[in-house]
Write a structure and sequence with these properties.
By secondary structure, the chain is an alpha/beta fold. It is built from seven helices and nine strands; from the N terminus they run βαβαββαβαβββαβαα. Strand 6 and strand 7 form a beta hairpin.
């Protein structure tokens, strides 16, 4: 699968690493000159099964069918506005949420597991075909996709993420933990 990740921070690094480990091709788009190129060079070693990673300048045409918005929450609207019609017909994965970035790290996503357990990725959306494609992408990355229902469930996912961040000092794991559904 070919995906474009707009954003080169911790989450862009984590998602890119997992996607490449799953044999998927990744295009990275950064806001500042050199960001995407630097991250692409860093992630080259994560590529498996013939996967490739490349950098594209901000504003470059979006050729891939899956676009991941891995930008700060405050930047999401302007990124969507910048790409406008290019997003039509594409699967847009928006991971943004209104949190303090100083509390966010994505080391567990880079590793793909915590305590020997693969990570769960919670997916909310209104398009069954898009969710199936994203679930396939998640599975290829060695993670478990959990369909939580329609897009309106995103509010609950944000609350779960915030709770997870808030309990980090109590856990003492330095964000080296994950939320997992066991059945």
């Amino acid at each position: 699968m070919n995906i474009t990740i707009i954003g080169t921070g911790n989450m862009g690094r984590g998602i890119g690493t997992r996607a490449l480990a799953g044999g998927n091709n990744v295009t990275l788009v950064g806001h500042r000159p050199g960001e995407a190129e630097n991250l692409a060079a860093e992630l080259q070693g994560a590529a498996q099964g013939g996967a490739s990673v490349r950098a594209a300048p901000a504003g470059a045409p979006l050729a891939d069918d899956v676009i991941v918005l891995a930008v700060p929450y405050t930047a999401a609207a302007s990124v969507v506005q910048q790409y406008g019609d290019q997003l039509a017909g594409k699967i847009v994965v928006d991971i943004t949420n209104p949190v303090d970035f100083s509390t966010i790290v994505a080391d567990t996503l880079v590793a793909g597991q915590v305590g020997g357990q693969s990570l769960d990725v919670f997916i909310a959306g209104d398009d069954a075909e898009a969710k199936a494609i994203i679930s396939q992408l998640v599975a290829s990355a060695g993670l478990r996709a959990v369909d939580v229902g329609p897009l309106q469930r995103a509010r609950q996912l944000e609350a779960l993420g915030l709770l997870h961040m808030v309990v980090q000092p109590t856990l003492g794991t330095g964000f080296g933990s994950a939320v997992k559904i066991l059945a």
